[in-house]
Amino acid sequence: MKTIDTGSGAIGVYFEAYKGSEYLHIRKQYTNKQGELKPTSKGITITPAQAMQLLPLLMEVLEEHQTEKKIAEKAE
């Protein structure tokens, strides 16, 4: 599992098999009493094919956001 520290917890990204198929999970994580990261119900589960479709969309949205942010900064 790969994680991103959010300050108040973590976001975990990992693959897991279910009924013979692999799924990518992107889930909020919490730390249990033993100090282990455990997934919450908050998140998404997608197929590898959906993940591949999502990647370019994420990049596009991030690039648009950066462009809009730069325009707003210049206007100030």
Question: What's the arrangement of secondary structure elements?
Answer:
Elements: E1 2-5, E2 10-18, E3 21-31, E4 37-46, H1 48-75
Antiparallel strand pairs: 1-2, 2-3, 3-4
What does it look like?
It is a single chain. The protein has 76 residues and is of the alpha+beta class. 37% of the residues lie in helices and 45% in strands. A four-stranded antiparallel β-sheet has the order 1-2-3-4. The radius of gyration is 17 Å and the shape is flat.
Beta strand %: 35-45%
Apparent shape: flat
- The overall pLDDT, averaged over residues, is 94
Second CATH tier, the architecture: Roll
Q: How would you characterize the largest beta sheet? A: 4 strands, antiparallel
Examine the coordinates and then state which fold CATH places here, giving the name of the CATH topology: Transcriptional Co-activator pc4, Chain A
Tell me the strand order in the biggest sheet: 1-2-3-4
Key attributes of the depicted protein:
1 helix, 76 residues, alpha+beta, Transcriptional Co-activator pc4, Chain A, 4 strands, flat, four-stranded antiparallel β-sheet
Summarize the structure.
The protein is 37% helix and 45% strand. By secondary structure, it is α+β, with helices and mostly antiparallel strands.
